[in-house]
Write a structure and sequence with these properties.
The protein is mainly α and 397 residues long. The protein is built from 18 helices and two strands. Helix 2 packs across helix 14.
């Protein structure tokens, strides 16, 4: 029974039960759980390692990882982009194959896929264009405006790369992950071993994320079903990353650190890619446990609801941090919000701010989540009568 066929009369009582009942029986709920976990990791990671220091009349970006390198293991837990690309490659490859079987053209399939990604971007760009103009007109320092706009729009680089890979899905569906991995390896050998120009590293912006994306395609083909595939990726990726950090001079942090000579993420390095392989291996091993957990209506309702607004949460989480920081300036320089991230006391204070960031993000979600819905859905919701009992939401693949 699908979301479209469940009626109010047949749906069991309770919102969580209705969401559970409205989900197609064959849906792999572990995929949605992994996607939600990846988004949560990115959000928490940015909130923990992004500091806006009030320096005179300006705000400048800083990171506790630059002052406290012993916190690098935090980035190992919360830098989860490889998992998102793994899931994205799996879903896009499966979706394209399904669309072809139904006779849907490539262009129509691509338009549907990309519209879900980019509909919410319009609201973000509109608001931040207005904010930047207002700040400049009211005399705000250009350093502050540049810092805020850069942070607000930083999620867009991910969407652009993801969109390019999605558009190339028919060509990538059979590509073995070892090919893009070999490209990353050779680019790093040229950059760090033969002093090639640093600009060469931007080849890895595509090649680096191609590795987990094509792993997702291999998952769709059924090549990663045996647990030994996950074990091999986890153990091999972990060992390779440890060796690269210990003996090849790669940074221990898996995110960029302001002022650092080399960033593992901007553009992706071989260490970031091998680390992503380990993450993908762990994700594959967690599929069965996640499927069991997702059979619980409450757990599935939380994951399904999060996936309905995944792009809204992803795009607006940095704005939530900056809105809290800007508002807090009226109360002076607050610890963990405006102060230099140079001690564990800052970390403790920042942890206390996380619920506030989440509350502000919830407000942004309430205002902008409809931008993520198809236009037709928004129109229907605006005009149809309110039902006495609302069926569970439909979760897109």
């Amino acid at each position: 029974m699908t979301a479209a066929t469940v009626t109010e009369a047949t749906a069991p009582p309770g919102l969580c039960a209705r969401i559970d009942a409205s989900t197609p029986a064959g849906r792999d709920r572990a995929v949605d759980a992994l996607r939600a976990a990846a988004i949560l990791g990115v959000v928490l990671g940015h909130w923990l390692v992004t500091a806006l220091v009030a320096d005179g009349g300006a705000l400048r970006a800083a990171s506790p990882l630059g002052e406290l390198p012993q916190l690098a293991p935090v980035s190992w837990i919360l830098q989860t982009l490889a998992v998102f690309f793994l899931v994205g490659g799996h879903v896009a490859t499966r979706g394209h194959a399904s669309a072809r079987a139904r006779g849907t053209s490539y262009l129509r399939w691509l338009r549907i896929r990309l519209s879900r990604l980019f509909r919410p971007v319009g609201a973000l760009l509109t608001l931040w264009t207005a904010i930047a103009a207002l700040l400049l007109l009211t005399g705000a320092e250009q350093t502050t405006v540049h810092t805020l706009v850069k942070l607000a729009l930083s999620p867009l680089w991910f969407l652009l790369v993801f969109a390019v890979l999605t558009a190339a899905t028919p060509l990538l569906a059979r590509l073995h992950p070892l090919w893009p991995l070999a490209v990353v390896l050779h680019v790093d050998l040229l950059r760090f071993g033969l002093d090639a120009p640093d600009g060469l590293g931007w080849i890895n912006l595509a090649a680096g994320w191609l590795v987990p994306y094509t792993l997702g395609a291999a998952w769709t083909r059924g090549e990663l079903e045996h647990p030994r595939a996950g074990v091999l990726l986890l153990v091999g990726g972990t060992a390779a990353t440890a060796a690269l950090v210990a003996f090849a001079g790669y940074p221990a942090s898996m995110v960029g650190v302001p002022g650092a000579e080399v960033s593992n993420l901007d553009p992706p390095t071989l260490a970031a890619v091998t680390f992503g392989l380990a993450q993908c291996g762990l994700a594959l091993l967690l599929r069965e446990p996640l499927r069991r957990v997702m059979r619980r209506p409450v757990a599935w309702a939380a994951v399904a609801t999060a996936n309905l607004s995944a792009m809204t949460v992803f795009l607006w989480h940095q704005t939530a941090l900056m809105a809290t920081t800007a508002t807090g300036l009226f109360a002076g320089r607050l610890p963990g919000l405006h102060t230099r991230p140079d001690g564990l006391d800052w970390v403790a204070a920042r942890l206390a701010w996380l619920p506030v960031f989440a509350l502000v993000l919830a407000g942004s979600w309430a205002v902008f989540r409809t931008w993520e819905l198809p236009r037709r859905t928004r129109t229907v919701r605006a005009h149809r009568p309110r039902p006495s009992r609302t069926p569970g939401p439909k979760v897109d693949a």
